[in-house]
Design a protein that fits this description.
heterodimer; A: 219 residues; alpha/beta; Beta Polymerase, domain 2; 2 domains; five-stranded mixed β-sheet; two-stranded parallel sheet; 5 helices; 9 strands; 19% helix; B: 163 residues; Rossmann fold
Chain lengths: 219, 163
């Protein structure tokens, strides 16, 4: 048996040697070698892999183990959290026959071009991947319809990225003012409006602050 | 024993056409509900039996803007919804009035985010704002009374009523 090429993700405190999910035990050993670690929180199992290793694992879960329901595809941007990679792409798979659920987290470096699509395994992946693309800009290679999902077609950014300001970059101020005047409608430039007094959670300054505070203190 | 007894027994009254038209209009507002969130639930309560907006003549709710003259914006308006709202406002025949119901429609509410319009009055004219999150039906009724006051003050030669 080959040695595990990738370092294991350290388990969180309290998650010492969690019991393995039956679906992970059923993985053939070449696939099990791709699993970096497993955590259990509130009874929910998650296995961690490095993209694109989630593709053969998900394929096995779907085709050989009967996980017939893809609950969701989503992602996390861990910018500023001192993690090995910036993104995790997350697949939540479910087996309707016995109600068994497993999360598959795939670490994705910022510089990666794409992750493999799983729309051929579950049809519901089309929309989940579209939404994840819409919010994070992650490209799912092979998804035939990777258009904007929630945001307008011409939206210029991926809003759930942590380095995108919470209040946007002025996109919500782009409309003309419509006024009635006699029989005709006129359009004017929008009224001047005070900028947000709220603090944008994810400004560059905020991210720097989080990075500073998350560094381990000496001693 | 009827209405004519109020006319002093003569059976007629004199008034100005401006006042008469305004009185008729304010007593028969036709709301166009633009409900996108929880405020719409309170709006529905206002329209139905318990609060009964028909006591004040505004019960004919139309889901076509071409048949209505009072736009009630009740709920969050997102970046993607704002062009729709503007289109609907344009489609309403004049004269028309707008109620911005609740915190979200009036100022964005607690949702100071990239996708939420921080007050529809930036992009369409608003006559009456209703505070609350969501406002109670009594608040919406009060807003309708305020619109009625505005309607009563309208001038037929102002240009708002067409030529």
């Amino acid at each position: 048996m080959a040695a595990d090429p990738a370092p294991a993700i350290p388990a969180a405190p309290g998650d010492v040697a969690p019991p393995r999910h039956p679906a992970r035990k059923a993985l053939p050993s070449p696939l099990d070698l791709l699993v970096l670690g497993e955590t259990v929180h509130a009874g929910q199992h998650a296995i961690f892999v490095r993209s694109p290793a989630q593709r053969p694992i998900l394929e096995h879960l779907r085709r050989a183990q009967g996980f017939d329901f893809l609950k969701d595809v989503t992602a996390i941007d861990l910018l500023g959290r001192d993690e090995a990679e910036r993104f995790q792409v997350i697949y939540i798979v479910h087996r309707l026959a016995d109600g068994s659920t497993l999360r598959v987290h795939a670490w994705l470096p910022e510089e990666a071009d794409s992750v493999p699509s799983v729309f051929d395994l579950w049809d519901s992946a089309r929309w989940g991947e579209r939404e994840t693309h819409d919010m994070f800009g992650i490209v799912f290679a092979g998804n035939p319809d990777l258009r904007r999902f929630l945001m307008p077609e011409d939206y210029p950014a991926f809003p759930l990225l942590k380095d995108y300001p919470l209040t946007g970059r002025g996109e919500r101020r782009q409309f003309p003012l419509v006024r009635p005047r006699g029989d005709e409608m006129v359009e004017e430039a929008p009224l001047p409006y005070p900028t947000s007094i709220g603090r944008g959670m994810h400004t560059p300054e905020y991210i720097e602050e989080v990075k500073r505070e998350s560094k381990p203190k000496p001693g | 024993m009827g209405l004519e007894s109020l006319f002093g027994g003569e059976g007629f009254l004199t008034t100005k056409i401006n006042d008469l038209v305004n009185w008729a209009r304010k007593s028969a507002l036709w709301p166009m509900p633009f409900g996108t969130a929880c405020c719409a639930i309170e709006m529905m309560a206002t329209f139905s039996g318990r609060y009964d907006i028909s006591r004040f003549g505004a019960e004919v709710v139309r889901f076509s803007p071409r048949q209505s003259d009072l736009l009630i914006v009740s709920g969050r308006i997102s970046l993607k919804m704002m062009p729709v709202l503007q289109k609907i406002y344009r489609q309403m025949p004049e004269p028309k009035w707008v109620i911005s119901m609740g915190a979200c429609a009036s100022c964005g509410g607690v949702f100071d985010t990239y996708t939420l319009i921080q007050g529809v009055d930036q992009f369409i004219p608003v006559d009456v704002y209703v505070p609350g999150c969501p406002p109670r039906p009594e608040s919406l009724l009060d807003a309708v009374f305020e619109v009625q006051k505005i309607v009563q003050e309208e001038r037929l030669d102002s240009g708002k009523h067409g030529r």
